Amino acid sequence: MNVAVFSTKTYDQEFFDRFNETYRHSLTYFSAPLNRDTTNLTQGFDAVCAFVNDQIDRETIEKIAANGVKVIALRSAGFNNVDVDAAQQRGIKLFRVPAYSPMAVAEHAVALILTLNRKTHKAFNRIRENNFSLEKLLGFNLHGKAVGVIGTGQIGAAFCKIMLGFGCSVMAYDVFESDQLKNQGVVYAPFDTVLQSSDIVSLHCPVTPETHHLINTATIAKMQRGVMLINTSRGALIDTKDTIEALKSGQLGYLGIDVYEQEEALFFQDLSESIIQDELLTRLMAFPNVLVTAHQGFFTKEALEQIATTTLQNLTDFETGQPSKNEVRATG
Ligand code: NAI
């Protein structure tokens, strides 16, 4: 197929080109994101391939449909950035990569926890300046701590298993409970109970109308004072302003985020010579007990291989009319 690949980075091109030797689609790479302002780039293409911060709203869909695009192949699991109803109404098929490496994201959540706790990022810088003092590097044992998990799908389940391995007790909330996780020692409880009982809360549910700003002043107040909050899921799960207030008051003891509600304008770009206009993110970064990474949870070799092969297979399945479990359909 003739595919316009948006938001391309060098690593995307490297992995897609390598695996496309088998699939033989015609891939044209654009570094620009796909949104209502860049749809003119889709003229002459049958397919678009997009990533998490491409804004595929109704207007974008109308425009790409008019240009002849018949299929959107997402390189992501989440599809909250696509107007699925609009795509269906315009006869555009939507595919995603449902699980490319749940372990990659779960392990990154653990990296955030360990870094915030044992302050290895600070130790690294100190030692390079011959500062061998341990002052202010005090951490806590993970062993025996209570970890709360919101959402026990693919990534949440992988995360639960790692934390059980650390000797933590794991309590979880999900609208669907997993018997397999229960057998492994995870205890399911209502959302409020999980918040009240946990030393560390990690978010692994998708953003939906029900979970938008799930973490806000009212829900943070239910948590233990000094709790560690981790979000590798989607930025809009957290009300950032409320989180800043909770960090200022000490109610929130640590915050580790790999996602940020306004990340589209920032993440995946080198802005080291730019003036950052985002006041909330700059305020967050001023806290010593906040760690921000720029949506790199997925970023492992294994995950990029899986993303490339599944996306290329999704395009082949569409082209050859094969039914695919990776197709996303409107629910309404
Ligand atoms: P999944 O679909 O396997 O699991 C999501 C779980 O959340 C399901 O068990 C579902 O029942 C549960 N859930 C839905 N609504 C809920 C609610 N209101 N309260 C509690 N639980 C609820 O998804 P997966 O693959 O585990 O992904 C989880 C999140 O991680 C997604 O938001 C995804 O976008 C994000 N993600 C982040 C990446 C990163 O690089 N940081 C990479 C890949 C995914």
From TrEMBL:
<feature type="domain" description="D-isomer specific 2-hydroxyacid dehydrogenase catalytic">
    <location>
        <begin position="3"/>
        <end position="328"/>
    </location>
</feature>
<dbReference type="Pfam" id="PF02826">
    <property type="entry name" value="2-Hacid_dh_C"/>
</dbReference>
<comment type="similarity">
    <text>Belongs to the D-isomer specific 2-hydroxyacid dehydrogenase family.</text>
</comment>
<dbReference type="InterPro" id="IPR006140">
    <property type="entry name" value="D-isomer_DH_NAD-bd"/>
</dbReference>
<dbReference type="InterPro" id="IPR036291">
    <property type="entry name" value="NAD(P)-bd_dom_sf"/>
</dbReference>
<dbReference type="InterPro" id="IPR029752">
    <property type="entry name" value="D-isomer_DH_CS1"/>
</dbReference>
<dbReference type="GO" id="GO:0008720">
    <property type="term" value="F:D-lactate dehydrogenase (NAD+) activity"/>
</dbReference>
<protein>
    <submittedName>
        <fullName>2-hydroxyacid dehydrogenase</fullName>
        <ecNumber>1.1.1.28</ecNumber>
    </submittedName>
</protein>
<dbReference type="InterPro" id="IPR006139">
    <property type="entry name" value="D-isomer_2_OHA_DH_cat_dom"/>
</dbReference>
<feature type="domain" description="D-isomer specific 2-hydroxyacid dehydrogenase NAD-binding">
    <location>
        <begin position="110"/>
        <end position="297"/>
    </location>
</feature>
<dbReference type="InterPro" id="IPR029753">
    <property type="entry name" value="D-isomer_DH_CS"/>
</dbReference>
<keyword id="KW-0560">Oxidoreductase</keyword>
<dbReference type="InterPro" id="IPR058205">
    <property type="entry name" value="D-LDH-like"/>
</dbReference>
<dbReference type="Pfam" id="PF00389">
    <property type="entry name" value="2-Hacid_dh"/>
</dbReference>
<keyword id="KW-0520">NAD</keyword>
